[in-house]
Design brief:
Elements (H helix, E strand, L loop, with lengths): L22 E10 L2 E11 L4 E5 L6 H8 L7 E6 L2 E2 L4 H7 E4 L11 H11 L4 H14 L15 H13 L5 E5 L7 H18 L2 E6 L2 H7 L2 E6 L2 E7 H7 L7 H7 L7 H8 L1
Parallel strand pairs: 3-8, 3-9, 6-7, 7-8
Antiparallel strand pairs: 1-2, 1-4, 4-5, 9-10
The structure holds adenosine-5'-triphosphate (ATP).
Adenosine-5'-triphosphate binds next to strand 2 and helix 1.
Length: about 270
């Protein structure tokens, strides 16, 4: 699919800078009561790159994403989106972020087109901008022809695609996706991967997505951040991790395992591979 460069319809507020990393997570720690969910986590998402947040259940992925979205507040550390602190400028930051949750809850009594129009209204997009943007993604995600049917009749994969378009309609500079390929058939997964790649490469969007599937991370990510029990245990480009492990042609699983002599990562890899 082809994606046009950002248009004047971009909703990125002026106080956010236009260069540098899209996201900077700086030494955040977050506890729920006595449970330390995230401990001293740092990473960044550069413009035009896809960063995978990997980890088994309970590793702290969702908490990290919630902190970026301003839904939970870390006790320690800070998070900046386009240079601005998410707690100081919550509205401006939210306008620059597109978020696609793992489980979609769309208004099922609307058609896909009505729902996307409703979302575009919330962002205050004008008619021409919204129409072009929505049509672009309906075509790219192979939903054209279904937009005037009720969402209640959509398959799970179609609902996920509508949620993805809803997260993209306002030209976000940073896109955050929670397990975006879960439940998609192989063709839909391929189409979504291609859209994400094009968004990163053509529009310069920074993409952060969580996954517990190593193959997905290997296939699509420019960089990965591996969490275990709330801490970052490995991060970098897949190639850099391969080089560190002296295994230029190996897959991610072998690389992770060889990066530690103690076998520290083996339980992570096992959990991620399930
Ligand atoms: P999953 O893949 O299962 O969604 P995750 O990597 O997203 O896991 P989190 O949901 O961030 O991990 O959870 C990290 C830790 O924090 C876990 O031990 C979890 O039980 C705990 N936790 C998360 N949310 C809460 C909460 N609201 N109250 C108490 N503990 C929580």
């Amino acid at each position: 699919m082809s994606i046009a460069p950002p248009s004047s319809g971009s909703a990125t507020p002026l106080l956010l800078r236009s260069t540098g990393p899209m996201l900077e997570v700086d030494h955040i720690t977050k506890s729920y009561g006595t449970v330390r969910a995230v401990s001293d986590v740092s990473f960044s998402v550069p413009a035009g790159q896809i960063v995978g947040l990997l980890g088994p259940n309970g590793a702290g992925k969702s908490t990290t994403m919630k902190a970026i979205l301003g839904l939970v507040r870390p006790e320690i550390g800070s998070i900046r989106v386009l240079g601005q602190d998410v707690t100081r400028f919550p509205v401006a930051v939210k306008r620059a972020i597109g978020y696609v949750p793992e489980s979609t809850s769309l208004y099922e009594f609307l058609t896909g087109a009505e729902y996307l129009d409703f979302v575009a209204d919330l962002y205050g997009l004008d008619g021409a901008t919204r129409t072009a943007r929505i049509e672009q993604f309906l075509t790219g995600l192979e939903l054209s022809g279904h937009e005037n049917s009720l969402i209640s009749g959509y398959s799970q994969g179609m609902k996920q695609k509508v949620a993805l378009i809803a997260g993209l309609v306002h030209h976000p500079r940073l896109l955050i996706l929670d397990e975006p390929l879960n439940g998609l058939d192989p063709r839909s997964a391929r189409v979504v991967k291609e859209v994400l790649r094009n968004l990163a490469r053509i529009e310069g969007v920074g993409v952060l997505f969580s996954t517990h599937v190593l193959e997905i991370a290997q296939a699509i990510c420019d960089q990965v951040v591996i969490l275990r029990k709330g801490s970052v245990i490995a991060s970098g480009t897949v190639d850099a991790l391969r080089n560190r492990a002296g295994m230029s042609s190996s897959d991610l699983e072998d690389v992770f395992l060889s990066l530690t002599e103690t076998g520290d990562l083996s339980d992570v890899v096992t959990a991620l591979s399930k």
